[in-house]
Amino acid sequence: MEDPIAFDLWGAVIPEHKEQAVATIGKLRPDVSRPAILRELIVAPGPDRQVLIARDLAWDTARSLREQLVNHFEHPQVYQTGYGPPNRARLKKCPVHQICYGGVLGCPVCDGWFR
Ligand SMILES: [Zn+2]
Fold first, then answer.
1. Most-buried pick from 25, 64, 105, 111 (CB within 10 A)?
2. What residues flank ion ligand 1 with Cβ within 5 A?
């Protein structure tokens, strides 16, 4: 049996709120140094320049962060963990939960198999 699905949160830093955004990522990804985060912002692929905000979240956490972080990030997007914007072309998006997922079983939350 596979583990229940967790979620990653991605978003584009709003330039005017860069400092708060970097501090938020630093808090949510304590394993990554500030210089490493700044480097991720620089190399984030265009045009939408999405960066990983947090990984391996439970659904409740992912959903509330997505709402809280709209001040510092444009279009924060929840992905099934392990997937992200580089995979977007082959992912599906749940119209109910707004989750991008790659599993053949469908949206993990609709499916009931999530953390
Ligand atoms: Zn769903």
1. 25
2. 94, 96-97, 107, 109-110
